[in-house]
Structures are given as C-alpha cells and as structure tokens.
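Per reviewer request, we include the raw input and output of the structure prediction for the construct analysed in the revised manuscript.
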Amino acid sequence: MKELKKGTISTPLGFKTSALWCGLKKKKPDLALIYSIVRAHSAGVFTQNLVKAAPVELGIRKLKDNYAQAIIINSGNANCCTGKQGLDDALLISRLLSDQLHLPAKDVLMSSTGVIGKYLPREKIIKALPKLVGGLGFNNAHKASRAIMTTDTFNKQIAVEIKIKNRPVTIAAVAKGAGTIAPDMATMLCFVTTDANIGQAALKKALKAAVDASFNCISIDGQMSTNDSVIIMANGLAANAMINENSREFKIFFQALKYVCLELAKMIVKDAEGATKFIEIIVKGAKSKKAANTAAMAIANSILVKTMIAGNNPNWGRIPAALGAAGVDFDADKLELSLGKKVVFKRAIPVLKDRQGLIKSLKKKEINITANLNNGCFEHTVYSSDLTVEYVKVNMAYN
C-alpha cells in the first residue's frame, strides 16, 4: 500500500466533485457534491442514535439497493428534528439534483451537518443546484472538503493506492468532525471513493469492519450525534479482478480501507474542539473484547481524566477510578497502569517516584495511557483528546 501525498477523493478514477457557497453559512463554502461518472456499488454506516436526521433516514432507505452515484452534502444545518418537512426537503433536493444529473432519484444521497432543530433553507440549496452541477470537475476536491466543515480547523483527506493482481486500485476519503464525537459514531461525516471492482457483500463487510476499527474507536466528548454517516462508492473503473469476500484480495482492500478510516479518525481527534492533546488509550488483559472496549472508553470519556491531561496534572488516580466505575470485571489488586512512559501503579502499589518527570511527559502533545487488567487476553485501543476551557467556550456559543 502506498499513501498518495496529494491524493483527494477525486484521485480514484471517475470521481468528480463540486462545491460552492449557497448562503447556509457566512461567506464560506457550504454545499458540496461528489459524483461518480458511472453507477457505483455503495454502502453506508450510520449513527446508532434513535434520533436520526432526515438525510440519514433517507440514506438508509436508498442504500437498500446497494447502489449510488452522487452525494450532496450541506453544512450549516443538520436537518434534524424537523419531522416530515425535513424528510420532504431532503427528498425534493435529491430528486431535483437527480434530474440535473440525469440519474434515477434513488441513486442520489444527501448528508447534512450543522445545527439541530432548524428547517433546512431548501430554496437556497435548490437555487444553487445548476451551478453546483455545472462546476463538477476533477480538481475541486479541496474546496469540497472545506464545504462540509463546521467547527473543523483543517480539512481532512487521504488517498492510498494498492495492487489487486497487479492492477492499481485507489481508495480515497474525506471527513469532517471536531466535536460531539463518540462511538457509533460521532458528529462526523466521511465519504469514501474507490475505483475498485468489488462485490457488494465484500464492500459492506469491509466498510463495517473498517468503521469498527476506526471511527468507533474515538471519543472527544462522549456525545453521540444524529447525523453520523460513512458512505462508500466503488465504481469498478480500475477494472481489477472482482474482489470477493474471504479472498486474499479482500484482505488487501480491507487493510487499506481500515488505514484510510483510522487516519481520518485520528485527524478528527487531533482537531477536537479546544483540544491541546491527542491521547492514545490501550487496555490489555481484559476478559473479553467487549470488556476491553468498555474499559478503554471509560477512560476516554472521563471528564476528570481529560481535564487532568489538559492541566498537565499528575493526579493519575483518576484513571483507576474511571476503570473501577466502568462495570468491567477485573481484580483491582492486579491492575497495572502506565501514563506516558512512566509506570505509576502496579498490583495495588503506587510506584511513581519521578513526579516531575511525569509532569514533563504530560506536557507533550501526544499522551499514552496503558492499563493492564491482568484478567484475560483481549486488548483494545481508543483515541481521545483533553478537555479544555476552550471546548466549553466553543459549545456555549455554537448555534
């Protein structure tokens, strides 16, 4: 696998993008379009929140036939908690866009991100559709990545190339997200494009597993969103031999897709609202995979741990306290804990001797927390950020 340094979502064969400002935000691009020149095998993974935004409900419905060819994305308005009108608005916009693209309406998906509880200013979007379609090209991906941002401070794109039986295949993706980030998934959108020729069952299997190993392994504030969507389109234009489940080629494709998703997930954590630190949390020695995941997320979502890291505070006792409250079966007398490169607790004995050294390591931009429960053979890694006053200020003002 080779990462393409200047790769974008238009790097895979046959994908065009467009973006513009239609008035949903103040003088910033707020409407984007991703388009495959041919119909593509498609799959999606969406939020597990019971309150789902209208475009999420629509996407779940449309992807039942496993195909798509275009995705329109708006920022500045989530089109959530808008009832029947919100769904009607999403249906109307996707239908009018399908007419201009000369596609069946079922092949046009929509995603939205922004403030919840406000009706979508659909007339602004509808008015912009001709210009949006007219602007489709192979060199607009960076503008499209900016158009889907809300509180993000930088755009997030990545592309890699793999070989499938000596044929070059490209996988690329763009994402947005900086706050309301928790597993299943987060206030995040991710759109993956690939020219791989891959079977539908294999595509769905690869996407779900890649999301589980990436976007479901991050937490910024423990808050689950209503609009989370990860959608992949595979148009087959690389003309490689068909990738089917359980083949060697599937493993190559999946590893590349997982890498793409995990790199974007890490970018989201590094761009967390108000964050100053990137935290890697590893839980080892758990009785089950679920237990390892639960324990790691208990640390990641602990406000006391997150503020401890933000303040370079060596009060490491907050970590075992979070673990003990996680509802995971382990013997506290067997717990081993490291913070940074410092072992701080080992089998019921505090062993930290270099307090100033720990404070120094906590001042680094990337922090590692490793907890060994010594209760089994399962391990899980998650990624999180610190919690600062700036996060509070951002979310006090966001509306």
